């Protein structure tokens, strides 16, 4: 049995990973999470008490981080400020958590000589043209666009430097856009699902031609566990499931699956600096570590996600009105 420290485990992807670890290993999991607006303890309900510990705290606070890292065998670092739109209006928390927080964790894993896995995003590579036949690979140069993605890029580079300069035993993964249960209603897919469920028309930024490469959060979790167990120290692995869709098609599919007319949405003000297209080539992870995604039917995965939001209104309802009001105030 390993002691796994999961930072950001009360957030969307972190909580999915915690459930996945509990179901697929005999590990003990400790979650360190600051419970910002994006953290929700309800996402961790029902976990077995003898295998799960929750600690409320800030990853940028060395006095909290140090003893937790010392007591762990593996650290998997999900905690972040994660929303591009927020980073355009108030970048400071992105610097504090994504850069200083990652630095604080790296110093602790260096001191205590612990295995570390760093969760990152495909957004560090910037964006692609719609008709570019190439996809992002581990060799693509970094070219981030937003305050969010630049702080994630900076955090990845800190990890690379700590591996090379101090011999830290780390791996990095850069994943494409996730969907699934427990995603905050500020994000694209849950915003549109819960808009429909509350009688509000979905909101598409600009023309809606931007493309995202969707992967189910469970497939992200299985990829991360594969890298933690079989990944080569110092290596980066791209995680993706060949799920490219333009935003307009996703909104139309949500409307179809909820029995609405497929044109019942609004175009709203576009995001500043809006990345056009992300696309991941995950050949390295598949061929070198033998990983395969399980959720390859996007429509079925989206339908199951809609069912989850229908069945779990108590989970998202408290955040919905304030999140939507903030968007409306921004013309979005
Ligand atoms: P999220 O915003 O849903 O969750 C982030 C969690 O981190 C929250 O529980 C929050 O309380 C916690 N947190 C924030 N600041 C903290 C701090 N200073 N100390 C401790 N905890 C703190 O984010 P998410 O969408 O689950 O993303 C998780 C990770 O995955 C991030 O590193 C993100 O960059 C990466 N990622 C996300 C996606 C995606 O599609 N959402 C894709 C690729 C990579
Ligand atoms: O209401 C909306 N309407 C809309 O058209 C919202 C909230 C978004 N969009 C568009 C913007 C993007 O093109 O949908 C797309 C997806 O938007 P987000 O859910 O905000 O995701 P994105 O900006 O692509 O970033 C996500 O994937 C990569 C995560 O939030 C990041 O944490 C991750 O790194």
Automatic annotation (TrEMBL):
* Keywords, comma-separated and alphabetical: Lyase, NAD
Key word Aminoacyl-tRNA synthetase present: no
| Family of this protein | Belongs to the NAD(P)-dependent epimerase/dehydratase family. dTDP-glucose dehydratase subfamily.
Q: What is this protein called?
A: dTDP-glucose 4,6-dehydratase
The catalytic activity of this protein is classed by the Enzyme Commission as 4.2.1.46
Q: Which SUPFAM superfamilies does this chain map to? A: NAD(P)-binding Rossmann-fold domains
Q: Which NCBIfam families match?
A: dTDP_gluc_dehyt (TIGR01181)
Quote the gene name from the UniProt entry: rfbB
Provide the taxonomic classification. Bacteria, Bacillati, Actinomycetota, Actinomycetes, Micrococcales
- What organism, scientifically named, is this protein from? Gryllotalpicola daejeonensis
- Check the record and name the Pfam families matching this protein: GDP_Man_Dehyd
User: InterPro entries given for it?
Assistant: dTDP_Gluc_deHydtase (IPR005888), NAD(P)-bd_dom (IPR016040), NAD(P)-bd_dom_sf (IPR036291)
């Amino acid at each position: 049995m390993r002691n796994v420290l999961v930072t950001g485990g009360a957030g969307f992807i972190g909580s999915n990973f915690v459930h996945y670890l509990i179901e697929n290993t005999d590990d003990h999991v400790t979650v360190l999470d600051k419970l910002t607006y994006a953290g929700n303890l309800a996402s961790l309900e029902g976990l077995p008490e003898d295998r799960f510990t929750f600690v409320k705290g800030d990853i940028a606070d060395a006095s909290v981080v140090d003893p937790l890292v010392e007591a762990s065998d593996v650290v998997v670092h999900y905690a972040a400020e994660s929303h591009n739109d927020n980073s355009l209006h108030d970048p400071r928390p992105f610097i504090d958590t994504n850069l200083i927080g990652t630095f604080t964790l790296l110093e602790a894993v260096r001191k205590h000589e612990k295995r570390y896995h760093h969760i990152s995003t495909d957004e560090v590579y910037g964006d692609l043209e719609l008709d570019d036949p190439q996809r992002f690979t581990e060799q693509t140069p970094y070219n981030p666009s937003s305050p969010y993605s630049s702080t994630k890029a900076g955090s990845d580079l800190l990890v690379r430097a700590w591996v090379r300069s101090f011999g830290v035993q780390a791996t990095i993964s850069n994943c494409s856009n996730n969907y699934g249960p427990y995603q905050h209603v500020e994000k694209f897919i849950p915003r549109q699902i819960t808009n429909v469920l509350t009688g509000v028309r979905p909101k598409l930024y600009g023309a809606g031609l931007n493309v995202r490469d969707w992967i189910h959060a469970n497939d992200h979790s299985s990829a991360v566990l594969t890298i933690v167990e079989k990944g080569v120290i110092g290596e980066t692995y791209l995680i993706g499931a060949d799920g490219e869709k333009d935003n307009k098609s996703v909104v139309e599919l949500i409307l179809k699956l909820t029995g609405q007319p497929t044109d019942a949405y609004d175009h709203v003000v576009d995001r500043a600096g809006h990345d056009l297209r992300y696309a991941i080539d995950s050949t390295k992870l598949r061929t070198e570590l033998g990983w395969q995604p399980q959720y390859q039917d996007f429509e079925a995965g989206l339908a199951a996600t809609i069912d989850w939001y229908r069945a779990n209104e108590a989970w998202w309802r408290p955040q919905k009105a304030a999140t939507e009001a903030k968007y409306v105030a921004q013309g979005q």
